[in-house]
């Protein structure tokens, strides 16, 4: 696994003290914002971060291969921001780019904050006290390596999710509060139940933990955030959670062309999810992470099987079904896997007549 410091053979850069905001000590938070061809939405995201009441942060915007005209707009945008905001280009104009995992890793390699937060360029924070509350809670719990909050999601203006983690409600309502806000400390297992994971927009992770797990897995260009989620939770000593909505996620429009998630068909997405789960299963140590990885991978393989079956690719479907059965056994699924294997054998015999 590549270290974030080795990314693209580029060495981390630290600006001189004169480049920092007057009177600002080393930032507590480094916010990583990967971007590509989205100057309008990026402006919204950065302006929202700029409104934070807690000033001890830096923002590292990593431009991964935007078109020349977009980079011109980015340069103009940077002039409207203060010295806490840096824009770094890591790929040539209009190139395919290195991918979201590599772009975030590069940003992390430049980070100076004790904690690293994230915001996608097409999303934005909506709570001005997001970092202030996080700073207070993390200071109150020295062993806390991860801080999560909550967010909503919309698609084309329609609300599709009012709560990222409704399954956590019973847990956080019973937990003791940390600090003056509604933050609480929750056990690892509640974050590893099927039904939802933290979006990067509401994730803050100790930088030393990110380095310990090797950052984002750059072999993935989709579901790299899920892989990061599993591996970071696996090694976290303590996890804090704030149920307040602090961000808005604009879910990808399936008709759009500038979203990473719309560049892959369903089979490719499922394969990427299987790779993320397999990677987590190989590298993780806690039984909770292993269990969720296995469960998610099993269902991803089942969905992949059905997609191949509906497409008439019975041989490939039989292979995927056998893999799903090995990961997530089940009586009904074993019968279906046997049926697919018979279809494959019949097709093989028919071709050899």
The whole-number mean of residue pLDDT values reads 87
Strand fraction: 15-25%
Taking pLDDT < 50 over at least 5 consecutive residues as the criterion, the unreliable ranges are 1-24
H/E series: EHEHEHEEHEEHEEEHHEHHHH
Based on CA inertia axes, which overall geometry fits?
globular
**Number of β-strand runs:** 11
Query: Alpha-carbon distance between the termini?
Result: 48 Å
CATH C-level class of the largest domain: Alpha Beta
Query: What share of the residues lie within helices?
Result: 40-55%
Oligomeric state of the chains? single chain
Give the name of the CATH architecture of the largest domain.
Answer: Alpha-Beta Complex
Rounded to an integer, what's the Rg over CA atoms?
22 Å
Structural class: alpha/beta
For CATH, the homologous superfamily of the largest domain is named as Spore Coat Polysaccharide Biosynthesis Protein SpsA, Chain A
Can you summarize the main beta sheet? 11 strands, mixed
Walk me through what this model shows:
This protein is α/β, with parallel strands linked by helices. The chain folds into two domains: 4-263, Spore Coat Polysaccharide Biosynthesis Protein SpsA, Chain A, CATH 3.90.550; 264-353, no CATH class. The protein contains eleven helices and eleven strands. Strands 1, 2, 3, 4, 5, 6, 7, 8, 9, 10 and 11 form an eleven-stranded mixed beta sheet that branches. The longest helix is centred in the last third of the chain and has 24 residues, at 287-310. The radius of gyration is 22 Å and the shape is globular. The model is unreliable at 1-24 (pLDDT under 50).
């Amino acid at each position: 696994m590549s270290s974030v410091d080795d990314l693209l053979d580029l060495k981390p850069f630290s600006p001189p003290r004169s480049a920092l905001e007057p009177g600002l000590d080393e930032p507590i938070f480094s916010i990583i914002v990967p971007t590509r061809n989205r100057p309008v939405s990026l402006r919204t995201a950065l302006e929202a971060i700029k409104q934070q009441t807690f000033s001890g942060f830096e923002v590292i915007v990593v431009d991964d291969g935007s078109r020349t005209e977009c980079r011109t707009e980015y340069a103009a945008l940077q002039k409207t921001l203060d010295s806490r905001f840096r824009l770094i280009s890591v790929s040539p104009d209009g190139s395919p780019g290195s991918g979201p995992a590599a772009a975030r890793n590069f940003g992390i390699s430049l980070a100076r904050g004790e904690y690293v937060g994230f915001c996608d360029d097409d999303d934005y924070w909506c709570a001005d006290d997001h970092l202030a509350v996080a700073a207070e809670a993390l200071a109150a719990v020295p062993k806390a390596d991860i801080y999560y909050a909550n967010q909503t999601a919309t698609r084309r203006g329609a609300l599709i999710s009012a709560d990222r983690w409704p399954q956590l409600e019973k847990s956080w309502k019973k937990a003791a509060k940390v600090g003056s806000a509604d933050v609480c400390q929750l056990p690892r297992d509640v974050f590893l139940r099927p039904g939802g994971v933290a979006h990067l927009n509401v994730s803050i992770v100790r930088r030393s933990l990110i380095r310990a797990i090797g950052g984002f897995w750059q072999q993935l260009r989709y579901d790299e955030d899920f892989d990061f989620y599993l591996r970071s939770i696996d090694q976290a000593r303590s996890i804090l959670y704030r149920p307040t909505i602090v961000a808005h996620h604009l879910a990808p429009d399936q008709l759009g062309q500038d979203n990473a998630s719309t560049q892959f068909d369903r089979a490719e997405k499922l394969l990427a999810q299987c790779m993320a789960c397999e990677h987590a299963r190989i590298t993780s140590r806690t039984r909770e992470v292993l269990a969720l990885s296995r469960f998610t991978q099993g269902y991803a393989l089942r969905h992949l099987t059905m997609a191949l079956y509906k497409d008439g690719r019975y041989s490939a479907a039989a292979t995927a079904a056998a893999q799903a059965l090995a990961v997530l056994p089940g009586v009904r699924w074993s019968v279906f896997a046997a049926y697919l294997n018979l279809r494959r054998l019949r097709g093989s015999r028919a071709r050899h007549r």
